[in-house]
Amino acid sequence: xxxxxxxxxxxxQYPVGSGVVTAVDRVSLNLERGGFVALVGPSGSGKTTMxxxxxxxxxxxxxxxxxxGQELSQMKETERSRFRRRNIGFTxxxxxxxxxxTALENVELMLRLNQxxxxxxxxxxxxxxxxxxxxxxxxxxxxxxxxxQRQRVAIARSLINRPTLVLADEPTASLDTERAIQVVETLAxxxxxxxxxxxxxxxxxxxxxxxxxxxxxxxxxxxxxxxPQDDLACLADPAECRLIPADVLGFGxxxxx
Amino acid sequence: xxxxxxxxxxxxxxxxxxxxxxxxxxxxxxxLVLFIAALGEGLGSGNREYLEKLNADLIVYQDTARLAIAGxxxxxxxxxxxxxxxxxxxxxxxxxxxxxxxxxxxxxxxYPPELLDISLVGVEPGKPGEPPVxxxxxxxxxxxxxxIIDRTVAMVTERGVGDSITIRSTLGNEYEYYSLQxxxxxxxxxxxxxxxxxxxxxxxxxxxxxxxxxxxQEDPACNVVxxxxxxxxxxxxxxxxLQAQVDRxxxxxxxxxxxNTPGYTAQQSTLNTQNGFALLIGVLVVGGFFQIQxxxxxxxxxxLKAIGTPNLVVxxxxxIQILIVTLVGVIIGSLASFGLSLTxxxxxxxxxxxxxxxxxxxxxxxxxxxxxxxxxxxSLRVEPLIALGLGS
Lengths: 257, 392
Known about the structure:
heterodimer, A: 257 residues, alpha/beta, five-stranded mixed β-sheet, B: 392 residues, alpha+beta, 2 domains, six-stranded mixed β-barrel, 11 helices
C-alpha cells in the first residue's frame, strides 16, 4: 500500500527582483496512514508554504509530492481541484466555514461536492458532529458558534469524506488554551482512528504533544524531527535535544515518521 | 449544478434582507425603464396613431413640402389625377388643423371656457381617411356640419352621438365658434399628440383657423391625399408610378409619413437614448453591487476553492444569485409599474405596449448577468491560496 504522503526534495523559490527567495529548501517527508505530524517553526520558516504544496495549491519549483500514489505537480488545475476534494481534508486558521450554511450543511457540503450526498452520507455527517460534541448545534449558523465549535465543525468537514490526508493550518490560533487542546486532541484522535494521515502547522508548542512526530522548520529547511513525548524540550532549547538534528543527517534525507 | 443552486439559494435566503434591498433597487430601475418605454410609446402613439391606423396604403404630399403635412397643399385637379392612375382603388383628401373643443358651452369672455385642444381632420365622406365608427354612423354629406369624434374627445367632453360640440377656431385676431353635430364615435385616433375630430373636408376648410375670411369652396385644397391601392403588395411600384404619372407630388408609405411628422424621430430617439442610459445605469449598479459582494467574499471563495469546489460551481452560484436578484427586482418593478399606471391621469401619454414592454423586461433580465460578469470573472480568479493567507 502506497504511503499517504511522500514528499521528495521539495523546493519552492519565488523570484524577487533579479534574484530568488527560497521559501522551502529540499524538504523530504514520508507519512503513513494513521500518522499525525506537527510542522512547527517561526513565521517565515516555510511551514505554510510546505502545507500549500502538500495540498496542491502551490507547485513546487522542484521535487515531487505524491499523495496516495499520485504525483500532484503533474496534474492540471482542474484535476488538482478534484483531487483535493476527494483526497484532502482542510482545516484553516480562519474563515473556515461558509457563513450562510449551518454546521451540518457545512459538513454536508463536502458530500455534495463529491456526489455523496445521500442518506448514508448525511447520517455520517450528523454522527461526526455528535462525536465532536455538537449535537445541539447542528442547525446553527457559524456566527452563532464559538471559535472552538467552529473549528470542530471544520474538523468534521475535513474528515467526512475519509480523505487520505488531513491538513490543518494553525487550527488553534484563535482559541484559548483549553479549547485549543480540545480541538487538537480531537483532530489527532480522529486521524488515528479513521486511518487518515494528518499534518498540522502550528507555532504553538503546547499543541504538538498530540502529534506522533514534530518537524521543526527554520528558513525553509527541516531543522530537526523530534518525538513530542521524548524531546519536546529541545524544540525550545536545542541544547536539550537528544535526537540527532536533521542538519546532521543532511538536508534532503527523508524524514521518516 | 445542484451544489451551485444549493449554495446560491442558501446565501440568498439567509441574507434575504440584503438581497431584497438590492432587488428593490433593480425594481426601481425596472420602473424607470418601463415608464420611459411606456412614455415613448404613448408619445409616439399620440403622434402617429391616426396615420398608423389610416385605411390607406400611401400618403401623397406636394413635392416641395418635404413630407411636412402642414406645408403640403394639394388641389382638386391633382386629386383627380391621383384617382385616375391605374392600380389606385380610391383616394381621399385629408386636411389637418389644430383647434379647440369647448368642454363646457360657455363662450363668456370674462370666464373663459374650459377647452380641449384637438386635431381637426378634414376627410372626404366614404373615402380613405374617414375613420370607422364604433358607435353611430359615418359622415354623410360633403359639406354638412357634422363630425366623428374620437374616444378621448367623447370621454373628456362627455358627448355622444346626437350631441353637438362647439369648435373654437380663429379668424384673424378673433375667436370663431362653430357648432357640429356628433354623428359617430371612433376609437382613439390621436394626431400631433391631440385627440381628433373628423369633419367633411369642406367643413374643415370653413372651420380651420384662417387669417382672413374666405368663401367656402366646393373642393378646397387639402394637405395630403390618402391612397388605397388595388394591390397593397405593390406599394413600392405604385409609389413610383404615382410620382411618375402625377406632377409635383411625393408618395410615401404610412410609416414614412408618421416618422416625418414634426419632432417624431427626435422625440423617439431621445426616449430610446434615455432608456438605453437607464439600462446602462442598471448594468453598472448590478455590476457594482455584486463586485462589492465578491470583494467581501474573497476569503470565503478562496476557502471553497481550497477544499476543492470547482470554478464552475463558484461561477454558477454567482450567476444564479444574480438571476434571482434581477428576476425578483424585475417582477416587483413590473407589478409596481402596472399599479402606478392605473393611477396615472389620462392626459399623461403612457401606453404599456406589450411588445415594447416585453423588450424592456427582457433587456432588464439581461442587464443583471451582463452587470455581474465582472464579479463572476473576479471570483473565478480568486486563488485558493487566500485560504492559507498566501495568495494575493
